[in-house]
Amino acid sequence: xxxxxxxxxxxxxxxxxxxxxxxxxxxxxxxxxxxxxxxxxxxxxxxxxxxxxxxxxxxxxxxxxxxxxxxxxxxxxxxxxxxxxxxxxxxxxxxxxxxxxxxxxxxxxxxxxxxxxxxxxxxxxxxxxxxxxxxxxxxxxxxxxxxxxxxxxxxxxxxxxxxxxxxxxxxxxxxxxxxxxxxxxxxxxxxxxxxxxxxxxxxxxxxxxxxxxxxxxxxxxxxxxxxxxxxxxxxxxxxxxxxxxxxxxxxxxxxxxxxxxxxxxxxxxxxxxxxxxxxxxxxxxxxxxxxxxxxxxxxxxxxxxxxxxxxxxxxxxxxxxxxxxxxxxxxxxxxxxxxxxxxxxxxxxxxxxxxxxxxxxxxxxxxxxxxxxxxxxxxxxxxxxxxxxxxxxxxxxxxxxxxxxxxxxxxxxxxxxxxxxxxxxxxxxxxxxxxxxxxxxxxxxxxxxxxxxxxxxxxxxxxxxx
Amino acid sequence: xxxxxxxxxxxxxxxxxxxxxxxxxxxxxxxxxxxxxxxxxxxxxxxxxxxxxxxxxxxxxxxxxxxxxxxxxxxxxxxxxxxxxxxxxxxxxxxxxxxxxxxxxxxxxxxxxxxxxxxxxxxxxxxxxxxxxxxxxxxxxxxxxxxxxxxxxxxxxxxxxxxxxxxxxxxxxxxxxxxxxxxxxxxxxxxxxxxxxxxxxxxxxxxxxxxxxxxxxxx
Amino acid sequence: xxxxxxxxxxxxxxxxxxxxxxxxxxxxxxxxxxxxxxxxxxxxxxxxxxxxxxxxxxxxxxxxxxxxxxxxxxxxxxxxxxxxxxxxxxxxxxxxxxxxxxxxxxxxxxxxxxxxxxxxxxxxxxxxxxxxxxxxxxxxxxxxxxxxxxxxxxxxxxxxxxxxxxxxxxxxxxxxxxxxxxxxxxxxxxxxxxxxxxxxxxxxxxxxxxxxxxxxxxxxxxxxxxxxxxxxxxxxxxxxx
Lengths: 466, 219, 241
Prior knowledge:
By secondary structure, chain A is an alpha/beta fold. Chain A has helices spanning about 10-15, 20-40, 45-60, 65-80, 90-100, 115-120, 120-125, 135-145, 160-170, 180-195, 225-230, 250-260, 295-300, 315-320, 325-330, 340-350, 365-370, 380-390, 395-410, 415-420, 420-430, 455-465, and strands spanning about 80-85, 105-110, 130-135, 200-205, 205-210, 215-220, 235-240, 245, 270-275, 285-295.
């Protein structure tokens, strides 16, 4: 697997922009998702109220996360669920590897879980000789290709149906087709076998319900359901921030999630897991494990304002609405989480050095805030993170010097007026109508020429004439 | 040596120390949501259920009387050339399925586990009872307790769902309000056939689960 | 009624005509205007780049200059947004903080001032051309100014106003973004320019010179027909001021 790091953002962006087909695919997918979302919202007159309500619910949980986690643990254990705590990705991987080895697990099926991507789980399992198969179609495709997902919800967004056809022919030996229905049948057949043979199923979870000691997995394909119910052991990898207080809170989130994520009124399946459901016929998992993953989340809590970024329900709406994401797709962000939320989480989870470019991959247009179902003020957080990056000395020295100079000059009006005459003077030395060349404003998009007089002088001249 | 649990909880408490924001429940907000929700809830929930069900590519058959069930099912299976049907132990389904002719009924519970998975996977249709219907999104709810096998619900290509009209609720809020908390721990909401749009955002029905869902409403 | 002019850097140094147009329209409406000496910059470029400490003295300077004015008007959504929204987050000195509270409620973007405060419905001008409208991000999303510019455009006689596709999608300027990620910025302004061209409009109207300058640069360099025009200039022209 390619080593992902947001430090490669500039290189990634250049690659993404040179791929015309990618641009078209991303633009098409994001705009159509937004359209569908708009249509559903028309039928939900309490949409804005829902956003505020879920913001309140999540804020309450995040600000009392320790208590909710303890409640969740207690109630899960009463239901026969085994709880594990993993402070970081190493610990999470080791925990899961141990469960696998304790149970002689040879074959694993997985449903879509970005948290498992975050902790680099698949590589560790495969290195330990355990066959690990992604079962969500998009993830399956991306796994076959040896890549990482390029969107939170549509992992293989960056590939065309021809790409998928060629991939299947190459890796599965099937006859070439580029018809999505036929490609799905190929995948379905191959993956169905694996569901029936797997020893362990690994899933993520959208919502972990503290009061009931149960958790929810939302999906459209039924692969998560089969991942959860076919094998003897089910392991759910859940970020500690996924908690909600009780069952009553859930419908508020479900009403927002599907429209925001896929433009549907409701996802096809909402799976509730509240314990090993092995019934008297031997069906369902015998063991249900939950691995609660921290991996930097508890540190994010430290900032009173930034902790709101932990309220994310991973719907992907911010990606779809982001003009930058629309142009470059997900791989350019260089991390498992992309788009506006990814840009906000990177410096927090990975540190301000590795994440020093991420919050700048944004024009501050605020569309993300408009569409976020749980009303996370992403633009404000991105500004705060830019400030943190500056304070940590992670911006370029030249820029820092320029900003200090700018501040010095702009608070001394006489000096400011003197210095700002310079560009006008330089402009006079250029051929008529030609602009000064400034970074960002070259041949493709020249600046207008600097005005010889400037507003103040023109205004005063105008007044003088009266 | 501290456990991960201790480390995590300590980190959380330290991070939140002295800066926990108190979030007060906004009753006015709750009231507004309830009012607006009520104002868009129609009187005819069955019609709404049907309309929403059809929007998600599922089929709806309304029985005029419970007596019709056998003949309707018989016709449905004949028309679709169904030879084998999988059922779970559910006694209501058992009573109905006994009277259907010309099909081979596979009792999921009679198959030996773990072969049951493989066998049921090969069967075209399953006949199952749903516990509830949710009108505003066209969903059905299956509750899993330890008396029923559940493989027919998901491994067969076609799920024929029997649903009693009285079990239809207006929305998920209503469902959760009235629900048995124990039952709610292991259940699934199903809204139409399985689907994916992962390849170029082209919607394709029948991903890993059923390709076809038919709901038969029993008065 | 007297308004103080808050002249953004781009208006002062690159496109002063827009500022002059704004003055003409305001005076036409019987409003007395005042140019506040010693104004420099609200600090937005530094703030958006994360240099919040460096912005504090600039904000304090700005507040000191403008706090006692009856109204403060700027032909820019992003500059007004900076003062009205983001200054609130800065750890300013006590004096500045208390003066800021009054300033916040008196600072307006130009079209917002005309429609919401002066209650202008129809200026009575004429402009017989096809135009379209670019909704700048800070104007629309931070300040919620969506209908006011459009109302003013529509009220002009003989104008042919066509909405473009995705009128509110970002034009790619984003301040320092335009040089930090120049290629993405160009990709976005190309997209915006194509949307404009598809309307057949001669002019793309907007309320932020930064966006308009960005768009016009691209239009010109690629021999596209349309040009941009700030709404202040449009209103002044429509009234033959």
